[in-house]
């Protein structure tokens, strides 16, 4: 009996030793070849975290904002020059901006659909090449008709470039989006300031055509730099190309000196990609309708502020308590006679200072996004913009007008940035680019209307021209407050 108990005890000890040896071996084997462990792109992006790849992404894709800003701000700088060269009336000058936004609107939905179906990278790269080519052709336009046609083609290309925001967002971890995406405003400001400086230095000596030719340079540089940006891993898995997505994630992890989660990348392919039914389905119908109006107002007020400031300065329509001799002369289009007044140095300086307003309050924007969330941030910014638009009607000094213009550009720019962020976060990957495309198309309707308010109606009455912008902001603030989804801190959805 004693021998039997000894034998059982020895067997139990040996069995326990074997189990203890097998468990680490199994664990080690599982870490090398995890058969059952899987991870998603979202988990991979969060695990890799922020690093050198994201700095490169921020610089290169942020530079896309420089190109877009230069093409849009060019309209405000070149308007007095083409008015002089072709003896244009107010509505003809306004039609230039409208045609640019028409091209943007038509190609906005198309570029979003193509980006969801065939990839973000192809659409953004094609947009760079397209916009640079037609912008260069614009400088050789022999007539007003050719000018507006070629600028509308530029707008079509810029619509593709705008999909770069989606591509950039899909690589950034959730906790960094509220910081990095608002900082992209710096590049927009740089683009706006660069075209103003070009106008100030080149237009008086070489003319507006050489200004446009020189403004194409950043686009050409970006075409070569864009090869360092990969296709979105989120798009690749949605299209069923898991191996390409894994290669992209491994490359990012290597650049960041990080590692992927244990296991294998596994996400189901989504057949219904780029479908408008997702945007108007029960999950996103209210969000889409309110967002379309919010984008309309964001563009309407942003370009309204840019073109209004240009028009007020060009025609000396400001109500100033300390006007200089030049600003005492009101240049208006009377009795069918076309005025021809180019920007003076002081006007360029005012536009430059107002551009600084686009980044001056970025720290405040980041704080609002993190503390109040996206919805409340948009609501407060629209209310503030409405107040500033009405304050522009008050007689003040030139310094006071510059301060108001500075604050207005800050608010409308911050709002535009938050709208971009919210849209990229709220829609799922399978319809994110299409959702952005629809939104940008609705925004360009606002951009098409803004010139006729800011440049045509402004000559008749300053208060009548500024009031529509203020009212639109008030209504939009209510719509933003009613948005049903808050995206602060939320992971990006892969499907609906």
Backbone CA Rg: 27 Å
Order of helices and strands: HEHHHHHHHHHHHHEHHHHHHHH
> Main sheet?
2 strands, parallel
The DSSP helix count reads 21
How would you classify the helix and strand content by structural class? mainly alpha
Structure report:
This protein is an all-alpha fold and 496 residues long. The protein starts with a helix and ends in a 15-residue tail after the last helix. A two-stranded parallel sheet has the order 1-2. The chain has helices at 2-32, 41-48, 52-86, 90-118, 120-138, 144-161, 164-169, 174-183, 185-206, 208-215, 217-225, 233-238, 242-256, 276-279, 285-314, 345-360, 362-371, 373-391, 398-426, 432-460, 462-481; strands at 38-39, 264-265. The longest helix has 35 residues, at 52-86. It is globular.
How do the strands and helices of this protein lay out in sequence?
Layout: H1 2-32, E1 38-39, H2 41-48, H3 52-86, H4 90-118, H5 120-138, H6 144-161, H7 164-169, H8 174-183, H9 185-206, H10 208-215, H11 217-225, H12 233-238, H13 242-256, E2 264-265, H14 276-279, H15 285-314, H16 345-360, H17 362-371, H18 373-391, H19 398-426, H20 432-460, H21 462-481
Parallel strand pairs: 1-2
Helix pairs in contact: 2-13, 3-4, 3-6, 3-9, 3-11, 3-15, 4-5, 4-6, 4-20, 5-6, 5-11, 8-17, 8-19, 9-10, 9-16, 15-19, 15-20, 15-21, 16-19, 17-18, 18-19, 18-21, 19-20, 20-21
Quick structural overview:
With 496 residues, this protein is mostly helical.
Descriptive keywords:
496 residues, mainly alpha, two-stranded parallel sheet, 21 helices
